[in-house]
Every structure is written in structure tokens, then in C-alpha cells.
Design a protein that fits this description.
It is a single chain. The chain has about 190 residues and is α/β, with parallel strands linked by helices. The chain has a single domain (about 5-110, about 135-150, about 170-185), classed as Formyl transferase, N-terminal domain (Rossmann fold), CATH 3.40.50.170. It contains 6 helices and 7 strands; from the N terminus they run βαβαβαβαβαββα. It has helices at about 15-25, 45-50, 65-75, 95-100, 120-125, 160-185, and strands spanning about 5-10, 30-40, 55-60, 80-85, 100-105, 130-135, 145-155. Strands 3-2-1-4-5-6-7 form a 7-stranded mixed sheet, sandwiched between helices. Strand 1 (about 5-10), helix 1 and strand 2 (about 30-40) form a beta-alpha-beta unit. It is globular, with a radius of gyration of 16 Å.
């Protein structure tokens, strides 16, 4: 099997990065992680990327041409899959169109419910019985691309924002690699 070259975009702790990297060590997993991109110079996931000697690009999203810088770097590494793993910046329509390959995202809700930010707060405020995560293809509309996979759990009456976040992230660590296998039809 020839593995696809993947790039992981992060903004925070990098827990999904760690999960994907662990999976990528398996010969039967369809991707190799070749590049990490972060829009947050203080993201904890950066330290993990450095520790694993992964190529890293930290971008200043306030610069006008930051997406062009990303596209050049991605081209250099022959990236065919971008995984948005807690990347807290919306990619422009122009970027999505210019990349022209597969971009996937993991979102902490059962889309189409609760697109965007503050998901856990909104789930609790809405008295949802169930929540979870969705891995979906990225298109030009926020959290609206075709769903690849969803995983869910029932909300406990004692759950708060932190507990929901913890439970959801554990599901994401399973769902994200499963979605990648599904995309490339690997078991």
C-alpha cells in the first residue's frame, strides 16, 4: 500500500494530532503525517510536533498572504489530505478551491446541529439527550460538508462543559482515524 501524505492543522493541545500520529505508525493506516500547521504559536500541540521531529509551520493569520504561504508549504510536501484537528481558523473559499484536494474536519457535535463555536455550552443549554462528534469533508460553508462518520453518546445529568469536552474528544480520537480509513477504503 502506498500511503497518502497528510498535513494536520492544529490550534491547541494536539490531542487529535497525537491520535492520528499513533494510527499512522500502523502499516495498514492510509496516511503518513508529513507536516503540521498551526495558527497559534503557543499551541501545546507544537511541542508534541517538535518532540516527534515533524516538519512544522506556524502561520501568522493576520498577514495578508498567510494562505499562500500554507499552500506553498503543502505543495512542497506533496500533501493530498488536510486534516483540521481543532484548527480554530476558517479556511477561505479561495484556499479550499486552490488546494483542490481532500480536506476533512472533526467537529464536536452531531452535525448539522451546533455548527461553529461554543458547542458544548449550546448542547447543554438546549437540553440535548445525546451529543458526539462528526468528521466531515470541508466545503465553502462552515461545518456543512458531506458527513463521513459520526459517533455519539448519551448525556448524563451531571455532565458539564468540561465533561462533555472530555467525552467528545475521546470519541474524536476514534472517529477521526476511522473516517480516514473509510475515505481510502482501508479496514
Amino acid at each position: 500500500m502506498v500511503k497518502k501524505n497528510a498535513c494536520i492543522f492544529i490550534s491547541g493541545n494536539g490531542s487529535n494530532l497525537k491520535s492520528l500520529l499513533k494510527n499512522s505508525r500502523d502499516n495498514s493506516f492510509p496516511i503518513n503525517i508529513k507536516l503540521i500547521i498551526s495558527n497559534n504559536a503557543n499551541a501545546k500541540g507544537i511541542f508534541f510536533a517538535k518532540k516527534k521531529s515533524l516538519p512544522l509551520l506556524i502561520v501568522n493569520t493576520k498577514k495578508r498572504n498567510f494562505e499562500n504561504i500554507i499552500l506553498k508549504k503543502i505543495k512542497k510536501y506533496n500533501i493530498t489530505l488536510i486534516c483540521l484537528a481543532g484548527y480554530m481558523k476558517i479556511l477561505s473559499k479561495k484556499f479550499i478551491k486552490n488546494y483542490g484536494k481532500t480536506i476533512i474536519n472533526v467537529h464536536p457535535s452531531l452535525l448539522p446541529k451546533f455548527k461553529g463555536l461554543n458547542t458544548f455550552e449550546r448542547v447543554l443549554k438546549n437540553n440535548e439527550k445525546k451529543t458526539g462528534c462528526t468528521v466531515h469533508f470541508v466545503n465553502e460553508k462552515l461545518d456543512s460538508g458531506k458527513i463521513i462518520i459520526q459517533r455519539s453518546f448519551f448525556i448524563d445529568k451531571n455532565d458539564n462543559v468540561e465533561k462533555l469536552k472530555d467525552k467528545t474528544q475521546k470519541l474524536e480520537h476514534l472517529a477521526f482515524p476511522e473516517a480516514i480509513r473509510k475515505i481510502y477504503r482501508y479496514n
